[in-house]
Amino acid sequence: MSHEYAISVNDVGKTFRSRDGQHNTVLRGMDFRVRPGEFVSIVGQSGSGKTTLLKTISGLQDPTEGEILVKGRPIKEGLEDIAMVFQSPVLLPWRNNLDNVLLPLEFRGTRDRAAEDYARELLEMVGLGDRATRYSYELSGGMQQRVAICRALVSRPELLLMDEPFGALDAMTRDSMNFEIQRIWRNTGCSVLFVTHSIPEAVWLADRVVVVGGKPGRIVADVGVDLPRPRGKEHRFSPDFSEYATEIESHIGVTTGIS
Ligand SMILES: Nc1ncnc2c1ncn2[C@@H]1O[C@H](COP(=O)(O)OP(=O)(O)O)[C@@H](O)[C@H]1O
Ligand SMILES: [Mg+2]
Residue 26: CB within 6 Å of ligand 1? Predict the structure, then answer.
């Protein structure tokens, strides 16, 4: 059954209550929707509530106000459609790459031959086809993060949530990961919510960039990115690209030194 929206965030607020009774309202009046297959980047200053927003959408935390629907249903029922990638890949060192990728399916008891073939296919897709039986300590940071992305994709999620997945990588690896994620997204057709500190990365990848700001955090801008696809390096130097980046930078309210 198809739904108009992959995610609906309806007037969501999140307040943390500490043991001594203090209240910290981190999100208020968050309201936006993601269409099926859409790639949405989220940017905002550190502490503006981006991770809180993603955790709330994933169902790891409950909102204190409003509601979140995934394909029109409350999240608790749709969890298997969602996968999350964090900044740190957190692979199990005693499992090889293939077994790390297959872990979520083992938890669900659905690991079988077809699943193993698909896991190998994913490793192939991210250029690690020949490393399936290697261990994470034999891989660079970028390679480990690619394994973590395969692990997120192995359950064929319709919704991929990524929280600064390339934040720990060097600039060149990060660039090639951007190409990788664009390709994966085009191949799988999943909807993506992608949190990043990098405005160029946000613009280059996205159909839309949502800017979170203020205290408590809310949406201060929602900018559609109308650049042709698939995108190549040349788009980073186009006048349109710079215009988008400058506009988003102005909404964040900090100078980030885009070159
Ligand atoms: N589990 C929690 N309990 C209490 N406060 C939290 C919790 N998680 C996050 N916060 C607070 O929420 C605010 C936003 O954090 P976060 O969502 O991590 O921001 P960002 O990802 O944009 O840097 C911070 O002030 C942080 O201290
Ligand atoms: Mg964060």
Answer: yes
CA–chain centroid gap for 180, Å, is: 13
Place of tokens 């209550």: 17
Residue matched to tokens 């309210």:
253
Instruction: Check if 49 has its Cβ closer than 6 Å to any atom of ligand 1.
Output: yes
CA 51 to centroid of ligand 1, rounded, Å: 7
β-strand 39-44 against 65-70: which pairing, if any? unpaired
Which candidate, 130, 148, 165, places its Cα nearest to that of 92? 148
Distance from C-alpha of 188 to C-alpha of 239, rounded to nearest angstrom: 30
* CATH T-level assignment (fold) for domain 7-90+158-252: Rossmann fold (3.40.50)
Question: What is the distance in A from the centroid of ligand 1 to the CA of 25?
Answer: 10
Contact 71, 6 (CB under 8 A): yes
194-228 pLDDT, tens digit each: 999 999 999 999 999 999 999 899 999 999 999 99
Q: How far apart are CA 78 and CA 68, in angstroms?
A: 11
> Residue 3: what pLDDT?
73
